[in-house]
UniProtKB/TrEMBL annotation:
Coiled coil: none annotated. Residues 98-122 have a biased composition (Polar residues). This is PRC and DUF2382 domain-containing protein. Residues 137-154, 177-194 have a biased composition (Basic and acidic residues). Residues 74-154, 177-208 are annotated as: Disordered. InterPro entries: Bac_photo_RC_H_C, DUF2382, PRC-brl_dom, PRC_barrel-like_sf, Stress_Response_Assoc. Residues 7-74 form the PRC-barrel domain. Residues 138-250 form the DUF2382 domain.
Length: 256
């Protein structure tokens, strides 16, 4: 078991299990009522330290800036819920010892270092002028700021499809027929054709002229697929809040 001076320094440090996995932050150290030896550590666990569990200090030792306990993280997580108070009852200790598979001795309950237990084994009794009887020390506490995040709706984005009209101009080559008059002299080659009709007569010849015209046809063609998706962008935001801290002063009214 660690020395008391070492255990006092454990408060506020991170507790890791025997495999080096983080368990939580040590809030208080509970000592044996008879010998004053450190016996239990009250550790903040869970998200943002929202839960508290008792962890045995038997076999615990410093590990750099952390404290390594001789238990597993799962054992701490599954530990029975014991309300943290000024002292542990015999029934609470039996429950914890049984959970961690530690032999239990009937030497008495444990008390938190600096807590306000009713009286210790030596019979030392302190008097609290505000009312209740305490031991020979008072506990100084302070608020700690734990900041987390929660997800909430910040707005909505929707896709909307609508139709716009624009003018498109294209140049298309077109062809047309035009009449051309051809004259040829009478020769031996065409003389018979020239005399095949009456000598003097009236006639009309007609030629049909053709031309091309642009034909416009519109077709609907898929161009792309559009969908909405989300991505997470991480920013930093400062959070400020007032916290309260207790301070202890000495008010000396003794005569000099």
């Amino acid at each position: 078991m660690p020395q008391f001076t070492d255990a006092y320094e454990y408060e506020g440090r991170t507790l890791v299990d025997r495999d080096g996995e983080k368990v939580g932050k040590i809030d208080e150290v509970y000592t044996d009522r008879e010998g004053g030896q450190p016996e239990w550590a009250l550790v903040h666990t869970g998200l943002f330290g929202s839960k508290k569990h008792f962890v045995p200090l038997a076999g615990a030792s410093p590990s750099g800036e952390d404290v390594r306990a001789n238990v597993t993280k799962d054992a701490v997580k599954d530990a029975p819920s014991i309300d943290a108070g000024e002292e542990l009852s015999e029934a609470d200790e039996r429950t914890l010892y049984q959970h961690y598979s530690i032999s239990y001795s009937d030497e008495g309950s444990t008390t938190a270092r600096g807590g306000t237990a009713s009286s210790d084994a030596s019979g030392t009794v302190g008097r609290d002028t505000s009312g209740p009887t305490t031991d020979d020390a008072m506990t100084r506490s302070e608020e700690e700021l734990h900041v987390g995040t929660e997800s909430r709706e910040r707005g909505r984005v929707r896709l909307r499809k609508y139709v716009v009209t624009e003018m498109v101009t294209k140049t298309v080559p077109v062809s047309r027929e035009e009449v051309r008059v051809e004259r040829e002299p009478i020769t031996d080659a065409n003389r018979d054709s020239a005399r095949s009709g009456p000598e003097i007569s009236e006639e009309e010849h007609e030629v049909v002229l053709h031309e091309e015209q642009p034909i416009v046809e519109k077709r609907t063609v898929p161009k792309e697929r559009v969908r909405l998706d989300t991505e997470t962008v991480v920013d930093e935001q400062e959070v400020s809040e007032e916290i309260r801290k207790e301070r202890i002063d000495v008010d000396d009214h003794a005569r000099r």
